[in-house]
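To whoever picks this up:

The nightly regression suite flagged CARD domain-containing protein as changed. Nothing in the input moved, so I suspect the structure step. Input below, exactly as stored in the fixture:
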Amino acid sequence: MADRYQEQLQKDALFLCSDQHVDTELLDKLVLQLNRIYPQILTDREAQKFRNLSVPAVTRLAELLSYLQEKGEEACHEFYRALHLHNEDLYLSLPTRVSRREAPELSGSNPKVFYRDRCVFNDRGKPVFTHTFTHSYSLSFLVFVQFKQICFYLSF
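Regenerated output under the current build:
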């Protein structure tokens, strides 16, 4: 990994605090995740501080990010894991993640193309899926009916 998580969080902090990317609900989920799963990173008292609704969410987020950077590498890593768990779209739009996907690998291939292709299961669209699913369902129903008839005849 080229950048450490602390360095990445420092780069991503401005993005996260701007344009209300992290709302109160998401901030609350992140704080609870860090507090409940990793109490060594965020104690109950600290979690209450970062969940205080009388303080604006942007301020609480900035303080949380600063606190996590002071806590160290593991705390920053767990923040990224919690963010990925609770808001994958925001996680993937972080500047450090975008630059990673756009930067060509040493082999010369572009991981962004791989990422896009990895998410496409069927390029023929929904009608082909619907047709295939209907055909599979019909075939399984036919087998079920035949099996039921065989069981009926065997019961006599």
